[in-house]
Amino acid sequence: MTDRNSAQANDLPRAWSANAAEARLSHQVPVIEPSVRPREGIRIPKIAIDVFWDSPQVAASLDRMAVDRVMSGARVNLRQGGIAAAIDHYEQAPTPNLVVVESRSSASAFLVELDRLAEVCDAGTKVLAIGHINDIVFYRGLLERGVSDYMLAPVDPVAVIEGISRIYGDGNAEKLGQVYAFIGAKGGSGSSTIAHNVAWTIARRFSSGVVLADMDLPFGTASLDFNVDQGQGVAEAIKDIGRLDSVLFDRLLMKCRDNLSLLSAPAELNSHYDLEERTVERLLEVAQSSVPFVILDMPHLWTKWSRNTLVSADEIVITATPDLASLRNARNLVDILRQARPHDPPPKLVLNQVGVPKRPEIKPDDFAKALQLQPLAVIPFEASQFGTAANKGQMIADVSTKGQASKAIGLIAEALTGRQEQKSSPRKLFGLGSLLTGLRRKSGGGSAKKAT
């Protein structure tokens, strides 16, 4: 859109402060239920967005969009009145980074309204239009006027978020790593062990860069499990979070195995680790720009920073043991995360330490029924394998690749990443062997049998 003076500006207009909570609707309206699916690669920058809605149903969807977890960095202000209200408002005020407008006008009237809106828009402002007209000629008219995107009402909250992501896409979305947060339903459930083994498996099987961040600062065990020196990784990174950049981040990493690096916990009790609510956000931003996968080994605690970190993660894995305390805590976690992440799939559930001799247990089917969540994996109690791995600083697959635990961890890694291990084809290997034999014969090497 052109600005009111047709001036060319290099900088975006100043951001507006807004409170999405103040824009909540006080009346009941039908809501378009968004499809719940993984939203890989969707990132919304820290921008100011003004929304001018014209129908209650669209207003409800946009309100839900504004409070979604991926919109946490944006400042969204919702107003009633459609394009007419936007025009009146911007005659006296500068425009934000993005203006979302809805109109129920006819095609010709809609285009006239957009022409008037363009006259009061500052340079650099982008416009996402929502209308009730499904016509290709009308759509071409919108493009000619510089509208960034057009969506047909009624709209899905997730679809609007995806539209904003496309508008501000800079080609770097694919480079941002996925964040997988692991948390135990209670202490001793084995969440850290599962997180460490999944991180190692992703790095080994898929030859992808992985950073494992041990967020249990006073008691973390990642350095023990990988048999590396204890470091100040996470503590040093968040000590002065404002100075953290990719160079400092790389310096704090400890190489564990091929493609796997560790941001270790100090595991010291000489300091207090009371983190601010948003402390981990910057850490994750830098980590995601560095590697395809970030594994968070979350401590078993509930604070503002831990809740925000879980809510912002791309996937959450809850590890539980088959007992009543784990069931209660897992149910509370699932409920609160479903509420905080309405447009995301529910957390993944891993049942661990199943089949301890002589211990009364809740059956996996009953556990799943109570949570209304099917376990991603059920890992049997294999004390010898887990104990040996822990004491030697090894992974489960180092001890045994054929055990049920090792296979279950592989399934978790594949389910999270959506990838599968590429195995060599016997046919291709046979063909290569035949080719080498043929080359030997042509060069006079004689029989492939070893001379005696």
Provide a descriptive summary of the structure in words.
- By secondary structure, the protein is α/β, with parallel strands linked by helices.
- It has 2 domains: 20-167, Rossmann fold (3-Layer(aba) Sandwich), CATH 3.40.50; 177-417, P-loop containing nucleotide triphosphate hydrolases (Rossmann fold).
- 39% of the residues lie in helices and 15% in strands.
- The protein is built from 17 helices and 13 strands.
- It has an 8-stranded mixed sheet with strand order 8-9-7-10-6-11-12-13, with helices on both faces. The chain has a 5-stranded parallel sheet with strand order 2-1-3-4-5, with helices on both faces.
SSE map:
Elements (H helix, E strand, L loop, with lengths): L47 E6 L2 H11 L8 E6 L1 H9 L7 E5 L4 H13 L6 E6 L4 H9 L4 E4 L4 H11 L10 E7 L6 H16 L3 E5 L7 H4 L7 H7 L6 H7 L1 E4 L2 E4 L15 H10 L4 E5 L6 H9 L2 E6 L3 H17 L7 E7 L9 H8 L5 E4 L2 H10 L3 H4 L4 H14 L8 H17 L10
Parallel strand pairs: 1-2, 1-3, 3-4, 4-5, 6-10, 6-11, 7-9, 7-10, 11-12, 12-13
Antiparallel strand pairs: 8-9
Helix pairs in contact: 1-5, 2-3, 6-16
What is the terminal-to-terminal distance? 83 Å
CATH architectural type of the largest domain: 3-Layer(aba) Sandwich
Report low-confidence residues grouped into runs of 5 or more: 2-34, 424-452
Gyration radius (Cα, Å) is 27 Å
> What share of residues is helical?
25-40%
| Main sheet properties | 8 strands, mixed
Which strand order does the major sheet show?
8-9-7-10-6-11-12-13
Number of extended strands:
13
On the 0 to 100 scale, the average pLDDT is 83
Apparent shape: elongated
Secondary-structure-based class equals: alpha/beta
Output the number of helix runs.
17
How many individual domains? Answer: 2
What proportion of the residues form beta strands (DSSP E)? 15-25%
Q: From the 3D structure, determine the CATH topology of the largest domain.
A: Rossmann fold
What is the top-level CATH class of the largest domain? Alpha Beta
Order of helices and strands: EHEHEHEHEHEHEHHHEEHEHEHEHEHHHH
* CATH superfamily heading of the largest domain: P-loop containing nucleotide triphosphate hydrolases
